[in-house]
Specification:
The chain is mainly alpha-helical. 43% of the residues lie in helices and 0% in strands. The model has no long low-confidence stretch (mean pLDDT 82).
Length: 100
């Protein structure tokens, strides 16, 4: 089978000029969420779990991740999947929504 049955892989290969948002597809390839958190964290200077609580949606947007992480609820969901042993406080994450 071409592209190992992955629509995302096929789209990325056939239309490389388009900035595909893998999070919008039902199934996400292994490691994608971890890669997204790592790249976003590096771009925002995240060095520990507590640093995520100072991040705002404006900072996520400026870092170029607004399509992957469109809201703090999405950030909470992604962080919960990448770090399942950590209990994330959604209201605390949302407290920085409008900060620059």
């Amino acid at each position: 089978h071409y592209y190992r049955g992955s629509m995302v892989t096929a789209l990325l290969d056939v239309y490389p000029e388009y900035a595909w948002n893998r999070l919008r597809f039902e199934r996400i390839g292994e490691g994608f969420l971890e890669e997204t958190v790592s790249r976003l964290g590096n771009g925002l200077g995240i060095t520990g779990f507590e640093d995520w609580y100072r991040v705002s949606t404006k900072q996520i947007e400026k870092a170029g991740f607004s399509y992957s992480v469109p809201s703090m609820t999405h950030l909470h969901s992604i962080l919960s999947k990448v770090y399942p042993d950590k209990s994330w406080d959604l209201p605390r994450l949302k407290s920085n929504v409008k900060k620059t």
